[in-house]
Amino acid sequence: MRVVKYIRDPVHGYVPVTEAELKILDTFPVQRLRGIRQLSIASLVYPGADHSRFSHALGSMHIAGQIVGSLRGHVEISGEEEQMVRIAALLHDIGHGPFSHSFEEVMVEKKGVNHEDMGRRVVKESELADVLGSLGFSPQEICELAFGKTGGRKRYLKQVIASQVDADKLDFLVRDSYYTGVEYGRVDVSRLVQAMGVVDENISIDLKALYALEAFMIARYEMFLAVYYHHAVRAAEIMLYKAMINGDEFLNLTDFRTVEDFLRMDDAYLMTRLRELCRSGPDDERVAVV
Length: 290
Fold this sequence. Notes:
This protein has 290 residues and is mainly alpha-helical. The protein has helices spanning 19-25, 28-31, 53-71, 79-91, 101-111, 115-125, 127-134, 139-147, 155-159, 167-180, 189-194, 210-228, 231-251, 259-263, 267-278, 285-289; strands at residues 3-9, 13-18, 196-199, 202-205.
């Protein structure tokens, strides 16, 4: 893999980007993530928590590459496999709707699909499929890495993205901690990554990094208490959920038939549609449901 660009990130410093990754970053489905907040409306409680799914995707890709580098000391991983893992990490949240998990709850209730189901569709049915194909990568194989089950041959590659200690969790803990100003999520990412190996096709962590692993587990627990399930954050998310679930009857938020319809929605789009309902007039039944 040849690095063609470095992107400055406040959490990880300079993130190297390859030519293939740059082309994927420039697609609309990935750029759309700039308009979706990582922590939904947690910024009502933590004003600094306005960071996007885009920055998290970039950070996850970076850590995924570091993990692959560490695993290479134990198993043979080709450059193509490394690139595929990094791309899968970049796209692992591509199926999120506006306000992330808040809208996902609505999708699950109304359509029976989650963000991973939508992620598969976006990778296979949007311009991403054409871009991946032109770069020599199979959209199906990328989906298997990004959203598939963690079993099977070379399952350690999938576990880079989805496991107890993966690139996704390592990034969102330190990133969410940084932007909320909460100290609990500060974990020693580099120590955990350096301690990773492979045992029986599964990712393992050296016992010498036990303290770092314990700190990671405690940090995750504390972040759920202090941020993700903060009482005021949850109250705001529940109100947003009820506005979406009730307003869906008139706004048809979950009535998207194509991937393009889904990708049209980001945080600003949803808030604009909800505000339009509120401007309908006090006697309009649509206002009552929101």
